[in-house]
């Protein structure tokens, strides 16, 4: 055999190993699933003894389960802004909750100059659909159909009655695209899953991106066999208020898990499993009705319980089964990851704050060292390797430093033992805050 033939044969043999996932499947389908207020200890594959989640457990068994994954925010709206823009939510102009109350900031939303993941994928030829919770603007101009999603069914507020579809102020909030739809009845979790499955069926011949943003396990705490709690115009139906929140919480979690099982089943049925990248995460940690495992703190805090969340990636044939990843990852990494997988682009000069996880997912290659930042409601945090600095989390200890590799429960403050590290991380945060504020997208005046 000639030498040139040997070289060609060798290259041909090694080619599959040299190609990235984005090369082998140039237009994979994307299924992005976000739970609401689901804690680090609320899935059975994360050690829960209260909640049984066999379908999510199976996703983890067939893919990668993250042990050090973080939402970019400690509450709802900020994380969603970061997720869909690939930028720190402070830069994207939504650093706190967009409230339903018109006396607060109901007029705020994700501004048109912010480029969403859905817009980038639509430009790349993808069919895009979103089902569930938006929470990035109440006014019609902020509707998901104007932010890159060709189809939308769900609600734009932070939460709705699971049956009456009323937001916290008693305003009806159930949309089909950019119009209210009062005709559709049903339990919100079931509706979200059913619409997602229907979307996948209709788009089977084309690459698609579906964003499934569940309300579960956010209050109001209503299982599938409960009754409406809210009435139009405001207030609660007292006789319908459920007292056993713990049981409702389990039922809500279970129904979400069952629905995710149906999404996976339709992908199998349509023979799309090997062509589909699935990622599951929560928008922040649990409140006191859920479980954050051994982590300190709850939703709204910048201790680990506020933002270290369950996360699972699954793509058979590309992500090795049964992988457990302990790399430090944040939700704003998902947009650059999906853009690389799909070969979609952002406009030239657009700054993304996350990094692509493709080689981490497919080859378990470590990420380059970096610092990660959180800021919410006057509190802030910096992560650098195993080290975490917190500022203004409590009045008693306005500066806290922990080595998470030795102290995951954040119980031993090392500020006095590490003064230089504290100073360096404080300076890094100050520089980040200044840079982000200078480039932040402004919100309109009321």
Automatic annotation (TrEMBL):
List each copy of the Sulfatase N-terminal domain by range.
28-343
Sorted alphabetically, the keyword list is: Calcium, Hydrolase, Metal-binding, Signal
The question of whether Calcium is a record keyword is answered with: yes
State any single GO MF term.
metal ion binding
Which Enzyme Commission number(s) are on file for it? 3.1.6.1
Transmembrane intervals: none
- Kind of enzyme, top EC level? hydrolase
Pfam families linked? Sulfatase (PF00884)
Residue span of the signal peptide, if any? 1-21
InterPro entries, per database record: Alkaline_phosphatase_core_sf (IPR017850), Sulfatase (IPR050738), Sulfatase_CS (IPR024607), Sulfatase_N (IPR000917)
Q: Does the keyword rRNA processing apply?
A: no
Protein family membership: Belongs to the sulfatase family.
The entry's protein name is Arylsulfatase
**Source species:** Gimesia algae
Task: Name the gene that codes for it.
Answer: atsA_26
């Amino acid at each position: 055999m000639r030498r040139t033939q040997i070289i060609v044969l060798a290259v041909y043999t090694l080619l599959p190993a040299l190609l990235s996932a984005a090369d082998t499947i140039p237009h994979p389908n994307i299924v992005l699933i976000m739970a609401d207020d689901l804690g680090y200890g609320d899935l059975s594959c994360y050690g829960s003894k209260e909640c049984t989640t066999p379908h999510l457990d199976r996703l983890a068994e067939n893919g990668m389960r993250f042990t050090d994954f973080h939402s970019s925010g400690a509450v709802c709206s900020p994380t969603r802004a970061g997720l869909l823009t690939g930028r720190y939510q402070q830069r994207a102009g939504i650093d706190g909750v967009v409230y339903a109350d018109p006396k607060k900031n109901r007029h705020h939303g994700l501004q048109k100059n912010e480029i969403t993941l859905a817009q980038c994928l639509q430009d790349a030829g993808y069919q895009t659909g979103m089902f569930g919770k938006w929470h990035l603007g109440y006014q019609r101009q902020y509707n998901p159909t104007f932010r890159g999603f060709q189809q939308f069914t769900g609600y734009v507020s932070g939460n709705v009655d699971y049956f009456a579809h009323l937001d916290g102020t008693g305003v009806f909030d159930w949309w089909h695209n950019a119009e209210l739809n009062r005709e559709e009845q049903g339990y919100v979790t079931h509706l979200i899953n059913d619409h997602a499955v229907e979307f996948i069926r209709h788009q089977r011949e084309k690459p698609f991106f579906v964003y499934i943003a569940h309300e579960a396990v956010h209050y109001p705490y209503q299982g599938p066999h409960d009754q409406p709690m809210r009435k139009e115009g405001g207030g609660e139906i007292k006789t319908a208020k459920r007292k056993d929140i713990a049981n409702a919480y389990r039922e809500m979690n279970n129904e979400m898990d069952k629905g995710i099982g149906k999404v996976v089943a339709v992908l199998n049925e349509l023979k799309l499993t090997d062509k589909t990248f699935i990622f599951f995460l929560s928008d922040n940690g649990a409140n006191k009705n859920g479980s954050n495992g051994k982590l300190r703190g709850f939703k709204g805090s910048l201790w680990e319980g506020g933002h270290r969340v369950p996360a699972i990636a699954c793509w058979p044939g590309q992500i090795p089964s049964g992988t457990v990843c302990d790399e430090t990852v944040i939700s704003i990494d998902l947009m650059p990851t999906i853009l690389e997988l799909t070969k979609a682009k952002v406009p030239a000069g657009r700054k993304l704050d996350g990094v692509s996880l493709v080689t981490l997912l497919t080859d378990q290659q470590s990420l380059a060292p970096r610092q990660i930042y959180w800021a919410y409601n006057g509190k802030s945090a910096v992560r650098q390797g195993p080290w975490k600095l917190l500022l203004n989390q409590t009045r008693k200890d306005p500066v806290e430093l922990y080595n998470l590799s030795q102290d995951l429960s954040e119980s031993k403050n090392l500020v006095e033992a590490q003064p230089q590290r504290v100073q360096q991380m404080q300076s890094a945060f100050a520089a980040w805050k200044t840079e982000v504020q200078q480039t932040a997208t402004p919100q309109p005046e009321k």
